[in-house]
Amino acid sequence: VPHGRPVVSGLGLSGSPGSARSSSVEAAPAVQGPEWRRPGPSRKAMWRRRRALRRQQAAGAMDGRASPSSSERRLIPPDLYGLCFRCFQDGHRRQDCSNDPLCIRCGEAGHVSAQCTQPRSPIWES
């Protein structure tokens, strides 16, 4: 390996005597043009950004402030304050609850609303 460079034969990449590139042929000068720039975001990426911004603004308009991040704690509704979030009884917390879970959707014990077979209540349109 001359001068610490690998020799690639037949591809014209190494400049060695055995390569396809001969010493009598000079390389063409590089084309001088406008400086290359990274392309901007795609139309789909711009649509996603606008959509996310509209949703964020709509959420801010509804409650008068920006939507809370997932790390922030939400306020407990007054009717649930002090109740267990598993069985909705007073006097203990969810971590300490030994009662069956209570479904918010149908009001029956033994399952949570994500596992409820009852249909959801219809959304009232105004």
From TrEMBL:
InterPro entries to which the protein is assigned, alphabetical: Znf_CCHC, Znf_CCHC_sf
Skewed-composition ranges (Basic residues): 45-54
Signal peptide coordinates: none
SUPFAM superfamilies associated with the record: Retrovirus zinc finger-like domains
Swiss-Prot/TrEMBL keywords: Metal-binding, Zinc, Zinc-finger
A molecular-function term among this protein's GO annotations: zinc ion binding
Limits of the CCHC-type domain: 84-99, 103-118
Comp. bias (Low complexity): 1-24
Annotated segments matching region Disordered: 1-74
Regions that span the bilayer: none
Keyword hit for Zinc: yes
Entry protein name: CCHC-type domain-containing protein
Lineage: Eukaryota, Viridiplantae, Streptophyta, Embryophyta, Tracheophyta
